[in-house]
Amino acid sequence: MISDRQRMAFFLSLSPRCQQIVRYVTQNLDNAEIAACLFITPGVVANHLTAIYEKLQDAGYSPEGRRYKRAALVGFLGDFFRDYPDIADATDGLNQVIKPSVPPL
User: Fold this and answer.
1) Which has the closest alpha carbon to 11: 62, 100, 78, 93?
2) How many angstroms separate the CA atoms of 32 and 77, rounded?
3) Are 99 and 15 contacting, i.e. CB atoms less than 8 angstroms apart?
4) What is the rounded CA–CA span in Å between residue 41 and residue 44?
5) Helices (H) and strands (E) in the chain — how many of each?
6) Residue 73 class from Cβ within 10 Å (0-12 exposed, 13-18 middle, 19+ buried)?
């Protein structure tokens, strides 16, 4: 079983844009709906999802087919967001709440 710590590490390893896309995917929006929310094209959403699925596979999930990959992503993080809604809320914008800032040199 994957721990919440591993799910958090996976989520935080994603870029801010990929984090936004994951949040929309876990809310069962399709690529066109996500694109409209983020003012990007569905093709850009698909490209981000490809990168997310590759990281998801590296995290131990390797479903075949687009539908199964999307379902695995929802299964992997959907419950996590329901259990920890503050994490999902804190990742809006530039993720300043969760990701520690790097002190200036």
Assistant:
1) 78
2) 21
3) no
4) 5
5) 6, 0
6) buried
Residues with Cβ within 8 Å of residue 19, at least 6 apart in sequence = 11, 91, 95
Burial class (CB in 10 A: 0-12, 13-18, 19+), 10: buried
CA–CA distance, 11 with 13 (Å, rounded to integer): 5
Residues 90 and 24: beta-carbon distance below 8 Å? no
Model confidence over 2-53: pLDDT tens digits? 788 888 888 989 999 999 999 999 988 999 999 999 999 999 999 999 999 8
Closest CA to 11 of 83, 104, 64: 83
Helix, strand and coil in the chain, % to nearest 5: 65, 0, 35
Distance CA 29, CA 22 (A): 10
- What is the identity of the amino acid at 42? P
d(CA 42, CA 36): 8
Q: Which two tokens stand for residue 38?
A: 């983020």
